[in-house]
Design brief:
The protein is of the alpha/beta class. The chain contains eight helices and six strands, in the order αααβαβαββαβααβ. The chain has a six-stranded mixed beta sheet. α3 packs antiparallel against α8 and α6 runs parallel beside α7.
Length: 206
């Protein structure tokens, strides 16, 4: 049975963060509790609405979807979304159980697929010490878009090869990124943001 989804507003997230000193143990305990409960996306109603507005009319595939928190929010807003994860590894690492799911995440190894049947592929907080984000990016076809939530190069997400791919293969959509990030509130000391990366038709973006 899936868990019901109840998103906070942007103001509620801001108020919750303001309860503790950003350098305190409690501040980071709050983030860990968030990750354990629903994953790395601390999603507000406003941000979910912005994402849905951007994705309207597309087929969306989230890879490494965890408990399906983001996928559930998009589905509730009428987005055609499919969610994959190698759930055995994910749940073992974060001590998640299937009864905590928000969305029917399918147990599929994204790297076992040669291509993705979607207009937009979403990746959220994939670690810098694995090539996963880069390997997914390499499978994108021209015309597909990668929507990535994570830190920039030398941060805690995605490998250097991934950022080399972004610089050489896509032309980032700055206008869409501005809209998606206006309601994104990173934790103190964390530089994650939404990146919109359309796969260009040539080998080098204009």
């Amino acid at each position: 049975m899936l868990r019901p989804l109840s998103l906070p507003t942007f103001a509620q997230i801001h108020q919750r963060r303001a309860l503790h000193n950003p350098l305190s143990t409690q501040y980071y305990k709050d983030r860990l509790e968030q990750i354990m409960d629903h994953g790395f996306v601390d999603l507000s109603v406003e941000q979910a609405d912005c994402l849905a507005a951007y994705l309207r009319g597309t087929r969306v595939l989230e890879l490494g979807a965890g408990l399906g928190y983001l996928a559930a929010a998009l589905h509730e807003r009428g987005i055609d979304v499919t969610a994959y994860d190698t759930q055995e590894d994910t749940y073992q690492h974060l001590q998640w159980s299937e009864d905590k799911r928000f969305f029917p995440v399918q147990c599929v190894d994204a790297l076992s697929l040669s291509a993705y049947d979607a207009d937009v592929v979403i990746l959220v907080w994939h670690s810098y010490d694995t090539p996963f984000a880069y390997q997914v990016a390499q499978r994108l076809r021209p015309g597909q878009t990668l929507l990535y939530l994570g830190e920039p190069r030398s941060g805690c997400t995605a490998s250097a090869d991934f950022f080399d791919w972004v610089e050489s293969t896509v032309k980032q959509d700055a206008e869409a990124e501005f809209k998606l990030n206006q309601f994104h509130l990173p934790y103190y000391g964390i530089l994650d943001r939404w990146w919109v990366c359309p796969r260009w038709w040539g080998s080098t973006p204009i």
